[in-house]
Amino acid sequence: MSLSIRLRQVRAAFTLDVGFEAPAGVTALFGPSGAGKTSVIEAIAGLSRPDLAQISLNGRVLDDSPAGLRIAPHKRRIGYVFQDARLFPHLSVRANLCFGHHRRRSAGQFDDITALLGLETLLERRPRDLSGGEKSRVAIGRALLSGPDILLLDEPLAALDAARKAEVLPYLDALATYGLPMLYVSHALEEVLRLAQTLVMLDNGQVTACGPVEEVLSDPDLAQHLARDDVGAVIRATLTGDAPDGLSQLTCGAGPLFLPRLPHPVGTPLRLRIRARDVMIARTPPQGLSALNILPATLRRIDTAAAREGGASSHTALVTLDLGGTPLLARLTRRSVRLLGLELGMDVFAVVKSVALAREELQLGAPPKPRATP
Amino acid sequence: MTVFGLGPQDWQAVALSLKVSSLATLLTLPLALATAYLLARVDFIGKTLVNTLVHLPLILPPVVTGYLLLLVFGTQAPLGKAFAGIGITFAFRWTGAALAAGIMAFPLMVRAIRLSIEAVDPKLERAALTLGAAPWQVFARITLPLVTPGVLTAAVIGFAKAFGEFGATITFVSNIAGETRTLPTAIYTALQIPGGEAAVLRLVAIAIAIAVAALVLSEWAARAVARRVSGA
Fold first, then answer.
1. Where are the domains of chain A?
2. I need a surface site. Which of A360, B59, B166, B221 has the fewest CB within 10 A?
């Protein structure tokens, strides 16, 4: 599939002007609150009327305002999961799930999806008797069962506490492998990293970046659009073995990495996230240091915060390293940069204090994995 | 023959009142629902004018409303003639009493239903649209079930208003025994007769009984519906 969008909406307080193409798979629409994320998906669902709207999905034109073409919301075949589940209070869970099911009824689909989302035991309940996490799952199931061409998820986890988030996330993982294109709106980078292949960054009504998640997040030019602690590279690595002392060994372009034992089989491709604040730089191979993950790298770029008018962080610099072909970002103080005498092209060592597993690489279009319901 | 000390003419008035107010309520309800939906959910040019027109019977003296009805639906008036063409005459007939009662009850019913439509979160209706329901299906499957308690309330308020309607009725269709003499006009008539106080008291007792019965019935129905709607 491919989703192609061009939108413009000029209002006194806010101008939305976005255009992007989303390939197959899960695309994250990421940005701070008020960036215009919800405006974009409301336009795709046909719930708003921007001044200019040109939207097509898999070659089917949904909107072409210059040509006066606009498909009514109920004919768009779009599954919209709202932030506030919006279950119909007068209907049971089963009736909620079946609300849009007449559209493309297929035998067994109801059972598949209720199983995928762990809803079998909730069917006769009323929405008011559900927990927040259960409501989210029912809302997702309801949207899926309406037989959509694409699923739009508007921060489905934002209204949930940490425990409920942890309850729903595995179901979203399962959904990501379901093969249905998804546009996932979020301002939480962890969710984006875990679920999405493509990232569209939105700030103040404009697209600031669009591309594969790893490329976009490893671009130092985009650091200014991210929260300070979110800045960091995403690298791909392969699980190569388990050490007897409880660690797993992974291989990335520049060498081995060690992480606490991972449950995945050897050979699994993984996506790792290394925050810029968790990377130190040494000019010589460090001795007598407890850190395990030390990788040789070449210094490619130094961005001082002063150049980016970021007042609060003006004492730091963002250093881009080349890790055997993959970029790695490190945040240092400007004093460290000066004291170490760092220069472009210099061979250094990256000391990685912490590595987070963003997710296992998902196989696109794979059949849904059986999952135990909690 | 007398029952509870009331003569056949009195019972005729009670029966006529029940007939007139039931018919007025039943026929006005769908119209009030459509008007309330229009006012609550649709933006259109002239909305203020429509809103004012709807409320007119509520703010005008009933006698004025009755006189206006006479001007519009009288035997020589254009609308009156048009209806006469399809066999419906309003002036000085019980159908006219029902028309007057319905028009007087209309604004109260619209207000009650409008309030309950406005209490339905439009986000639910938008969610239903994205699930492939056409606007009329959204109304039938989401909005209408959720406003049923409000519609019931409107029916009771409308029935009570129609049942008690006096001024517009007596002006429009007069006070003809057996044809347009409803319970309120019967009480009024009895009051004019020397020694009619006993009959007045009996009629008043019946009016109170009917009003209380309607209220109790509606409370019970509203509770049952609310339970079903909210899923308790």
1. 3-217, 230-363
2. B59
Minimum Cα–Cα distance from B138: chain A residue: A74
- How many Å apart are CA A68 and CA A56, to the nearest integer? 14
Per-residue pLDDT of chain A (374 residues; tens, 9 = 90+): 588 999 999 888 888 999 998 888 889 999 888 888 989 999 999 999 899 999 999 889 999 989 989 999 999 999 999 988 899 999 999 999 989 876 555 657 888 888 888 898 999 999 999 988 899 889 999 998 888 889 999 988 887 788 778 878 888 888 877 778 899 998 888 888 888 889 999 988 889 889 888 888 888 877 777 777 778 888 888 888 888 888 888 888 778 888 888 888 888 888 888 888 888 898 888 888 888 888 889 988 888 754 444 455 568 888 999 888 888 888 888 888 888 888 888 899 998 887 777 765 543 333 334 333 33
| DSSP conformational letter for A60 | E
Contact yes or no for A212/A205 (Cβ under 8 A): no
Determine the distance from the C-alpha atom of residue A204 to the mean position of all C-alpha atoms in its chain, rounded to a whole number: 19
CATH 1.25.40.10 fits A230-363, yes or no: no
CA atoms of A372 and A342, how far apart (whole Å): 51
**CATH (residue range B3-230):** 1.10.3720.10
Pick among B130, B147, B148, B227 to test the A interface (most A CBs inside 10 A): B130
ipTM exceeds 0.90, yes or no: no
Using a CB-CB cut-off of 8 Å, the residues of chain A touching B142 are 88
Distance between CA atoms of residues A69 and A71, nearest Å: 7
Beta-carbon neighbour count of residue A210 at 10 Å? Answer: 19
How far apart CA B194 and CA A85 sit, in angstroms, is 69
Structure tokens at A184: 């996932």
Backbone angles phi, psi at A9, to 5 degrees: -145, 115
The answer to whether A3-217 and A230-363 have equal CATH topology is: no
Whether the model clears a pTM of 0.95, i.e. scores above it, the answer is: no
What are the chain B neighbours of A128 within 8 Å (beta carbons)? 230-232
